[in-house]
Each structure stands twice: as C-alpha cells, then as structure tokens.
C-alpha cells in the first residue's frame, strides 16, 4: 500500500435541488475524494476547518479509514458553499460562497513524499497547487483536478503545474476550454502534450475517457435512474481512482483501466444521496456487484 | 441468411461543410443502410429514383451485393437534398429539399415476408411505414427509424407503427422528444413500453445504448480524429446492425450486442468521407481491425 495524500477543501454545504434541500452537510472536494479513496486505501487528508466545524461532521470523517492528522482546525469559520440544482440537474448555480479559513489555507506536507506515493491536488488555486508541488519533491505520482474558474483566471500557473502532473482529471467542457480542442480525442492528446502522462476526461452520463501512453479507454457511466445529489461526483471519481492506484503495485495501462472502472462505480453511488450519505452505507459487495454490472454493459 | 428488405430514400445530395463541398453525390437513407448492410448480408432495396438518376450513381449501388429489383425508376426528378454543416459539424442546416418522385413513393413488397425476414422502415412518413407494415404480414422482424419532424407532425401514426415494430432506432434527442423522458435510461424503458422489444438510442460521439429484454448495453463510439461528412451515419448504423442480424441464426441479447458493435464500426467508416465513398473502399479486415479496437476501448 502506497501513501495517498489528498489536498482540497472540507466544507459545509447547503444544497437545494429536485430531490429536496439539505443544510450544513459535510462536503468539500477533499472530503468526497477521501471518502471514495477509503474503499481501497487509507488516504491522508490535508485540509482545514474552522472552530465552528460540528462534531457530528467530524464523526462522519472518522467513520472511514482516513488519516485526519493533516486536518487543521483554524481560527475562523469553516468553508461554506450553498448551491441550487435546476430541474433534472441540468445545471448548478452557486448561491453563496464563504471561504472562511480556507481562504488562508496554506497546505503543508511536512516533508517530501517517498517514491510510490500519490499526491492528489484537489480543485484549489493553481498557485497553491504549485506550492504543494514544491513541497512534495520529485518522487510522488501527482494527480490534479481543476475547474473552469482557474482555467480562465490562472491559466499560467495551471499550465506550469501540469508540467509536473502525472494524471489530470477534467470534465469535457474544462478539457475543451483548456486545450482549445473541440474534439475530445484531440483534447486528450493535447492534455498529454502539456505534461501529464495520463489524462481522464469525464463526460457525466456519457462516461469517461482515459488517455494513457498505451492508448485510449472509454468506459460508459452506469445508468442511474435516480440521482439525488450530483455534488462531489467528480471528486469521488478521482478519489476512488487514486485509492485503487495507491493499493496497486503497478500503474500500467491495465491498472489504470481497473482504477477507472472503480471510479465510475464509486461516483455512481455518491450521487444517489446527499453528500456522502450513500458512501457511508456502501458495502464491499455492492461495489463488486456494480463492477459486474459495468462489465455487462460493455460486453459484446 | 434471412431476407433483409430496406425501405427508404435514394437521393442526390449537395453537401457543404468543414471538409469542403460535393454536388449531386449518391445519398438517401436506404442507400446508406443498404451499403452498410451489404458487408454482412444481401439487402433488398425498395426505393425509387427519377429518370434523371445518373448511370454513375447507379453503378455505385451495383458495386455491392445489393438486390436492386425493388428500385423503381419513375417519371420525374430524383429526390434531392442540399445541406450545410456548421464548423466542427456542430449542427446541420437543410438548404433545399426537392422530394421529386419520392413525394409520390408508394413502396410495394409484392407479398408478405416469410418468417425470419427483417424489414427496415427507414425514415419515411409514418403513414407510409404503416402501409408497408400491412403488406409485410405478421412474420417479419420489423426495425424502424424516424426523425423529429415525424415525431412532432405525425405522432399518432408513429405510435401506431411502434406497436408493430421490434427494433426502434432513435438518437438521444428524438428519444427524449418521443417519450418525454429526459433521462435516457427511462427513455429506453419508455420506448420498449410503446411496443418495440428492442430499442437503440444513438448518442453520436458518446456511443449508443441498446435496450433488450435481457438488459442494457452501452457501447462507446470509436474515437474519430477526422470526420468529413456525418451524413448517413445513422442510416449506415442501422443498416449494419440489421445486416449482421440477417446473417445470424439468433436474435438474442448476445447477437444484438454483436450487431451493435458492427453498427458502431461501419458508421465510423461512413463519416470518414463524403457519401458512401469510404464504404466503397472498405475491406473485411478493416472491419475486424476496428472491432478489435472497439473491444480494446472498453477492456478493464
């Protein structure tokens, strides 16, 4: 088992959408990524919360094999996000955003990561990602996620970070925006030309593409008749993929594909309930069942 | 080998788009479907052309094992369609449409089709599809295609025809429009509830979904770095699927999945050049190669 260090946000979310409304539920990119990774590995969470962080929310984090030593409690309020989904989850609107202590977050790794380690740079300011890369040293396998906000606003830092990234996660629109390529196959190649040895382009209900030195993998999404909260789908996708990789001796094409399938499966559970509610109840055998289902989908 | 009867249009197309312009090239839904089917079976074309139909275009039809006995030459001009594709083939605009002899087309099957036969009702007026169904008798396996124009304008006849259809082909937007379901998994179930035992929902670059009594198959599209003319992609998809089915002793889930893979492969060749140009040059071993590629895409 290799080390897996996950950097990102731990937040309290208000979520409103077709399936109802929830207030102050545990969220944040690092929360979802750690929760998802914990089904395969023991991720180390590097994030910060405020003194107002509810004991109940912390207990939810403690339920899983997640190393919380890097979760700093700082003076000030916890990161809060409030969002609303349109009917049929067609779009998402941010109603309010209060960075709280996350606004001054300066992640610290302590010391460089040993060979074999995986570092996940969740969706944070690309300048912060660069600062973490400097701390991580040259031996870690670096995975990163970002959003359109940073692609538009901090492109240079992002591009600099990509040169030191091994695996980049983007959704289709982000990949098009970053590369200028409309065709996703060309976008995948362009991403790899920017540095990452591997690129994942997530297409929501249409599945995901994985670009490696060995070629292309295309895995469909699992059919979901009932989505209740898509928040964190991408973060848990990345977390599950990296958790599986951390637990694997190899990072070759076959292992990356196997990890992609686990990512697809875990994300399909995430969206079934608000926050990490579904993942809290998730059993090993349910993961295996859904993997078998995924295999059945693409059999011909 | 079972009989495969394909009903639709044979046309002369003017096509303008990112890859250039071609005038008066052989097109039409039945042309594409027959060409694609001919790699697996010997389809019988039931369509009409005008006296102006160029000998050169007829020779292109004669190149493949297609039974042209049902291709009627009528007094008047051949169906002509003129269309333009937007940059990156993002959308298509019809510039001119002259039905010509196709406006008075009353397809005739001669006599009912024997058990095991497959009848493909290409995209024509649903009332005409019903008239053909009456001629076909109760023993044929009926596949049908349609477009948004008929879903909006002749919904009742379409729904009536569906009750007598075994396999329906629609793209994602058409499936949503016909069923009122935004979620494609629900749309697939709704389509099957309307009559067809099997439904295929085509998602373009995102592949296709197949709904059967045994469950769901999701096959990705082949990655296409170079598309030159998407005209006829859907028709050749359907033609290839039905050609493979006509050549198969079974129509069970495994056979339908195998047929879906062939459909994906043939359509990927169709769009590589204008009209049926790429299919004219297509070799057996290229089909096998691309099938292997498709298998590689979904391996995990």
What key phrases describe this protein's structure?
4-stranded mixed β-sheet; 37% helix; globular; alpha/beta; 300 residues; 11 helices; homodimer
Short description:
Two copies of one chain form a homodimer. Chain A is built from eleven helices and 13 strands.
Please give the structural blueprint:
The structure is a homodimer of 300-residue chains.
Chain A: E1 4-7, E2 11-17, E3 20-27, H1 29-37, E4 44-50, H2 55-62, E5 71-74, E6 79-85, E7 92-98, E8 118-121, H3 126-136, E9 141-145, H4 148-153, H5 155-162, E10 167-171, H6 172-179, H7 184-193, E11 198-202, E12 208-212, E13 215-219, H8 233-246, H9 253-270, H10 277-281, H11 284-297
Parallel strand pairs in A: 1-4, 1-8, 2-6, 4-5, 8-9, 9-10, 10-11
Antiparallel strand pairs in A: 2-3, 6-7, 11-12, 12-13
Helix pairs in contact in A: 1-8, 3-5, 6-7, 8-9, 9-11
What does the model show?
The structure is a homodimer of 300-residue chains. Chain A starts with a strand and ends with a helix. The first copy, chain A, has eleven helices and 13 strands. In chain A, helix 1 (29-37) packs across helix 8. In chain A, strands 5-4-1-8-9-10-11-12-13 form a nine-stranded mixed sheet, with helices on both faces. In chain A, helix 3 links the parallel strand 8 (118-121) and strand 9 (141-145). Chain A has helices at residues 29-37, 55-62, 126-136, 148-153, 155-162, 172-179, 184-193, 233-246, 253-270, 277-281, 284-297, and strands at residues 4-7, 11-17, 20-27, 44-50, 71-74, 79-85, 92-98, 118-121, 141-145, 167-171, 198-202, 208-212, 215-219. In chain A, 37% of the residues lie in helices and 24% in strands. Chain A is α/β, with parallel strands linked by helices. At the A-B interface, helix 7, strand 13, helix 9 and helix 11 of A face helix 7, strand 13, helix 9 and helix 11 of B.
């Amino acid at each position: 088992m290799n080390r897996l260090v996950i950097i990102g946000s731990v937040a309290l979310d208000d979520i409103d959408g077709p399936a109802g409304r929830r207030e102050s539920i545990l969220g944040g990119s690092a929360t979802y990524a750690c929760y998802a990774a914990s089904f395969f590995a023991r991720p180390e969470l590097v994030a910060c919360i405020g003194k107002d962080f509810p004991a109940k929310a912390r207990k939810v984090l403690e339920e899983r094999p997640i190393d919380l030593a890097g979760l700093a409690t700082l003076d000030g309020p916890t990161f809060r996000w409030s969002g609303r989904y349109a009917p049929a989850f067609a779009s998402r609107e941010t109603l309010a955003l209060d960075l709280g202590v996350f606004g001054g977050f300066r992640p610290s790794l302590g010391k460089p990561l040993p060979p074999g380690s995986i570092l996940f740079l969740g969706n944070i300011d690309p300048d912060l990602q660069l600062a973490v890369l400097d701390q991580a040293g040259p031996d870690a396998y670096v995975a990163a996620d970002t959003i359109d906000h940073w692609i538009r606003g901090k492109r240079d830092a992002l591009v600099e970070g990509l040169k030191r990234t091994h695996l980049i996660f983007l959704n289709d629109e982000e990949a098009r925006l970053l590369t200028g390529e409309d065709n996703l196959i060309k976008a995948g190649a362009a991403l790899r030309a920017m540095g990452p040895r591997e690129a994942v382009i997530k297409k929501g209900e249409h599945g995901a593409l994985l670009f490696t030195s060995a070629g292309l993998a295309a895995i469909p999404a699992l059919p979901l008749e009932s989505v209740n909260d898509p928040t964190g789908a991408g973060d848990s996708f990345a977390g599950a993929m990296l958790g599986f990789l951390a637990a694997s001796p190899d990072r070759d094409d076959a292992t990356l594909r196997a990890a992609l399938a686990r990512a697809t499966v875990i994300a399909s559970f995430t969206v079934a309930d608000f926050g990490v509610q579904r993942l809290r109840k998730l059993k090993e055998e349910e993961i295996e069942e859904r993997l078998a289902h995924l295999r059945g989908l693409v059999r011909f």
